[in-house]
Amino acid sequence: MNxxxxxxxxxxDIALRPIKVRDQRAWxxxxxxxxxxxxxxxxxxxxxPPGRFPPQRPTxxxxxxxxxxxxxxxxxxxxxxxxxxxxxxxxxxAGITWGSMCSAHIGYWIDQAVAxxxxxPTAVALAVDHCFGPxxxxxxxxxxxxxxxxxxxxxxxxGFREEGVRPSYLHIDGxxxxxLVYALTAxxxxxxxxxxxxxxxxxxxxxx
Length: 208
Fold this sequence. Notes:
CATH superfamily: Gcn5-related N-acetyltransferase (GNAT)
Largest sheet: 8 strands, mixed
CATH class: Alpha Beta
Mean pLDDT: 93
Number of helices: 6
Shape: globular
Number of domains: 1
Structural class: alpha+beta
Low-confidence stretches: 204-208
Oligomer: single chain
CATH topology: Aminopeptidase
Order of helices and strands: EEHHHEEEHEHEEH
Strand order of the largest sheet: 1-2-3-4-5-6-8-7
């Protein structure tokens, strides 16, 4: 294990570790139980052009193999989110770009049964600090549907800047959907995003 990948990141009861094939049972159980909770925010595949067959949805094993391959190529960091040792969600750093950009974007989902406990903001902060630290990136984006109030609260609590709207940005829940763009650069959090999050979530401290 090197300092970049594979890696385990942790803060108290919350941890990120690489997704594994053996996570299949827990991953499927959470996804099936949270269908109504997750469906409005999940990426879907647009209809195929005339004369072409629509792509098949990958199996869990195919998905994990693809994520591992992308991680080995340095284009992605695919984590699962753990709370007290139990799998409760997924967080992926994707679209890693080097050269003059040095950026990536983060996507995530969480089990509704544990939502609202600060797990997702902590997970995002852990990932961002890893990206700005050992990985060496400069900018992180998170794109959120305007209707997704819980996800917007996550990035706003962490102090991400809202930069505007990307019309028809992603195919979500069966249609092309607008997304709000939130971003953060390394210079904006010299103390680290996890430190900022802890300072804002202390008892008696006003939170966003």
